[in-house]
Design a protein that fits this description.
Blueprint: E1 4-7, E2 10-13, H1 14-26, H2 32-43, H3 54-66, E3 99-101, H4 103-106, E4 109-113, H5 120-130, E5 142-149, E6 152-160, H6 167-173, H7 177-183, E7 187-195, E8 199-201, H8 204-224, E9 230-235, H9 244-248, E10 252-256, E11 275-280, H10 285-289
Parallel strand pairs: 3-8, 7-9
Antiparallel strand pairs: 1-2, 4-5, 5-6, 6-7, 9-11, 10-11
Helix pairs in contact: 2-3
Length: 293
């Protein structure tokens, strides 16, 4: 009987696990980092931009060990956990003169992608100061945007890799588990959307979503070497949000989350149930996400 081990939505066969054991035995003295990189090399396990999936591989190795399926060599050194000592973004003061009126009063509006640019520090500062969730570094692929009007920042938007499984989204797309695992990277989620509190411009939020729709796929391809096919976002009604701007920008309400985290084992809600909105960037998005094109 072929025993299988499941990690992050993917099944690993006993043959694959035995192959990992062989690599560990061959490079025991080289350490865990070398072993992880060697597995990525042999499996051709890379992101679309060619970067090895080293962190996912390390997580797999630790999970296999915790389940008694492999034994890893001792750590060659204890690396400090950067999350324990990560500093909050510095406070950067910006002009807070009230901005009111209509879209025509603030045009031209410039949407600037700031990831890996000097302006990324400003994005982090604004999100930390004025977004109710603050700033946390996203896991996986992500892009960050600042919206400027006449040189002044007026809004910020953040996007990153999506949750592995959202029931209402997956039913809307219609993909099976194998298709989802292979093609989830074509979906991105809007994790931060901030209009600065002194900015009151009618229809600005939906206008910015429209701007994002027209360029995010090309920006993502420039950074990560693959297109984006589907956008999603969570809206928390318990905080009084209704997703009005998403509806105005023609996003579709797909349903609600289950209120359980990704590692939940109780099958009971332990957080607020959020509305899930989606926006396909292609007419044939289902075929694209299911790998039928």
């Amino acid at each position: 009987m072929d025993e299988r081990f499941r990690y992050r939505g993917k099944d690993y066969t006993q043959r694959e696990i035995d192959g990992i054991k062989d690599i560990i035995a061959a490079y025991w003295d080289r350490g865990r980092s070398f072993i992880s990189r060697e597995i990525c090399r042999r499996w051709d396990w890379t992101q679309p931009n060619g970067v090895p999936k080293d962190m996912i591989c390390r997580g797999l190795l630790l999970s296999l060990q915790s389940n008694g399926l492999i034994e890893l060599p001792p750590k060659l050194k204890n690396s400090p956990n950067p999350l324990l000592h990560r500093r909050k973004p510095p406070v950067i003061e910006v002009d807070q003169t009230p901005v009111r009126g209509s879209l025509s009063d603030i045009r031209p509006v410039e949407l600037v992608q700031v990831r890996r640019t000097p302006l990324e520090t400003l994005y982090k500062s604004l999100i930390e100061q004025y977004h109710y969730l603050g700033y946390t570094r996203p896991v996986g692929e992500h892009l960050e945007y600042i919206v400027f009007s006449y040189g002044r920042p007026i809004a910020c938007l953040g996007w990153c890799s999506p949750p592995r499984h959202i029931g209402c989204r997956d039913r809307y797309i219609g993909w099976n588990q194998e298709q989802r695992v292979k093609r989830l990277h074509f979906v991105v989620i809007n994790t931060r959307f901030l209009i600065l509190p002194w900015v009151e411009i009618s229809h600005l939020a939906s206008h910015l979503l429209g701007m994002m729709v027209r360029r995010i796929s090309s920006d993502w391809e420039s950074m990560y070497a693959h297109e984006v096919v589907f956008l999603e976002s969570f809206v928390d009604p318990e905080r009084g949000f209704r997703g009005t701007c998403y509806k105005a920008a023609n996003w579709v309400c797909l349903g609600r989350t289950t209120g359980r985290g990704k590692n939940d084992s109780t099958k009971k809600a332990n957080r607020s149930l959020k509305l899930v909105f989606g926006y396909p960037l292609k007419k044939d998005f289902r075929e694209a996400l299911c790998g039928l094109l």
